[in-house]
Amino acid sequence: MNCKSNKLRDAVVIALAASVLPAGTALAQEAQSGNATNLDRIEVTGSRIKRTDVEGPNPVTVVTRQDIQAAGEISVADFLRNNVYNSFGSARESSGSATGSQATISMRGLGSAYTLVLLDGRRITPSGALAGGAANINMIPTSAIERIEILREGAGAVYGSDAIGGVVNIITRKDYEGASIQLGYESPKVGPAGTTGSASAGISSDRGNITFVLDHQDREMMYNREIKDIVTGAGIAWPTSAYNSSATFSNANGTRSVANCDTFENSIRTSPTTCGFDHGATSANEASLRRNALLVNGNYNITDNTTMFFRGLTSETKSLGVYASAPVDNNGNGPGKLPTIAANNPFNPFGEAGTLYYRFTPLGTRDSHRKDTLRDYTLGLRGTTELFGGADWEVAANYGNSSQSSVGLNYGIGSTLQALIDSGQFNPFDPTHPSVAASAGKIGHTVYVESVNKTKGIDGNISFDLFKIGDRTAGFVTGFEYRKDALSQLYDAQSAAGNVFGSAGAGTNGDRSYGAVYFETLLPVLDSLNVTLAGRYDDYSDVGGKFSPRVSLEFRPLDSLLVRGSWGKGFRAPTLSDLHNAPSSTNLASEPDATIPHAGGDELACQALAAYRAASGNTSYQPYPVNPCNSGLQYTWLQLSNKNLKPEESTNWGLGVVWSPNDALSVALDYYDIEITNIIGTIPRALAFRYGDQGVPLYGVDRGPAITAPGGTVLPGPAQLIRLPTDNGAMQTSRGLDFEANYRYDTTSIGAFTTKLAWSHTLEFDFTPVGAGTQERAGKFRYPKDRAQLGLGWNSGDWSANVIGNYIGKHDSGTRATNFSAQTTVDVQASVATPWNARITLGVRNVANKMPQFSTAIGFPNYINTIYNIWGRTPYLRYEQNF
């Protein structure tokens, strides 16, 4: 195919093609008369039709291996988390999470379930620990990556119905010759050091090639006590919990602790009559993570027209998370049911019957040991045929298994503890009493969880030229996919029965089959105008199917100018977990929501308490263990799945312009518009609280005994368990602008300079929950409108240097606690190639040691760890030896 020449475009095509074409396929570049150049066509993320233009109708950001190395991050998860299109951050390995070893990416802030992660153009097996709803990018070995292509718009018609927020296509190394080893070390200002190591080798022949990559990463755990001075230095009070090792006693006459409650370890006096537990003294902030991975990529030319290819990735991580000793939130009668003590119990100093907010400390902290394993294999054939006048074809089988084995130490059986209290053989008010140590072994329980998500599938496609319009060729591709998905999350029998305190036991068992057929055609209707039509029908065995169309345009009025646009539909099926998950409990706050409107907390109890205070004049009266008027305190919620869920639906469209006036400069501006309806999720927790008190079906609130205030006024009992079902009906819109610019300046004396700017601006991010008004979130607390990154590079001979500026815009919801200023951090790096064929790199991330902003509007440890990190200034050293 002849095309008009653009030197910058041609250079990029050659570089990309060299890294993606299989062995035995030569890149043909032959000079033609005039300004024509004959280039082999390549496939770029966002379309299955091969073309000569890297810049097409789809906005794609290409991140090279050199870009990843320049950032100096220890893992691909850390690198992608800092990407400007990961708008409002995403999950990282966290010690305070049930899936603490996992990391995700969430393009446009829509959630990780809306970002499709591909490995060499095929979807990576979603994580079993994430209930099959998203990929765990912590499993991807950094050293195995050749480049990352980020499609910044939906592509349901191309890759699958759930590619709504965007696509991240991770291209692995292949066709590599030689060998190298790489060692890295980093030492952050806050937290432990991290180490990396990798070994790569590749061989090739006339018939094929094979590439091996071994990868290792190790980062130890960071404890909360390491950041206590930073948090309190920011003016944030170090929190305590009512669940104490010396039980907090509660009944209709109020909440009290024993007189000497502050003499016990980690028990802090919070008022003249109560103490709280310093859970941050023993818990960890970020979980440790140790990863070992092996990638094997190979190609073998069976004939001149047929190539066999294979990719195998096996990755394993081990993680440790440490939580404070278990709060007793289950007395054997289900989550949220607290232990009780009789008035005549020999250890009851109050002489009244009541409820206990107790923390089981004799066995120590809850330690969660997790082992994650990913096995992802693909074996296939690709080639050419004389059919249809000459066609390219490909067929492949793939198998994926993403599993997690989790062992949680030092939990307990609530019924056993309750029985010991009732029999007078356990003193919950004195953690040093001999009865506590004597009974610990009887009460203690180890939680076992096995999560497995398996995928088996086959896919294939064929592409060929349909016809010519003048001298322009219309391309066409059609294909199919089939897979079988199975999700299993199994808990030990006691956890599954809801008998364990300090743990949210639940299980899932479900499977489904999935099939899809698709097509895509490129129609060059004019010399300067291409139209691409695509369609895909996805069918799920349990929720049915739907057709997703897509149309895109690319208009080139000048060789240097591209105007592009696209429109498409998509849908996302409920996950197997959404449909089949067993009830699970979790501890979360009832946050305020102005669109309901709702002040947060326990509305029913707060209103009754406020009325009593006003009537009695006793403004300090507060008998509840959890202040019902404080929206930042936590309650126990029972999360419920729903077998009647329907798929979500989406509409995506966008417009953009790309200008490349010369070989050195390229500028792109794109607008995106996403609307998702019938969203699967839960309503605002504060509204669920209200619905539960009102008796709305599926909802409910379990309360303790009513409280009788002085004077005889009866107040609602404390909330112990609130039901939170999953349902359809919410709506989300996300609209914004992306700007990218690349400039290169070459000199004859001092080397070459490069500049890369990426900026993403959110114009609108509105969410409308079921039963509530629209929440305009763009620019509000937790939703910064702007993220940007500016990279400056220089290289001359053996030397190179990089400076990267990272910008996160302000976000503010109108209060002091939710007013977050913009943050800019700067990373620097220098590198030199040695005469012995090695490269030494020294760098510092966050040179100015910028800390995240702390706020009482955020749960402990009071900073947003999905957007910011707390490591501070991080020097690192990397050594690479090539052979």
From TrEMBL:
Residues 1-28 form the signal peptide. The keyword Signal applies. Its main location: membrane. It comes from the Bacteria. Belongs to the TonB-dependent receptor family. Keywords: Cell outer membrane, Membrane, Receptor, Signal, TonB box, Transmembrane, Transmembrane beta strand, Transport. It is found in: Cell outer membrane. Residues 55-167 form the TonB-dependent receptor plug domain. Residues 329-847 form the TonB-dependent receptor-like beta-barrel domain. This is TonB-dependent receptor. It is a multi-pass membrane protein.
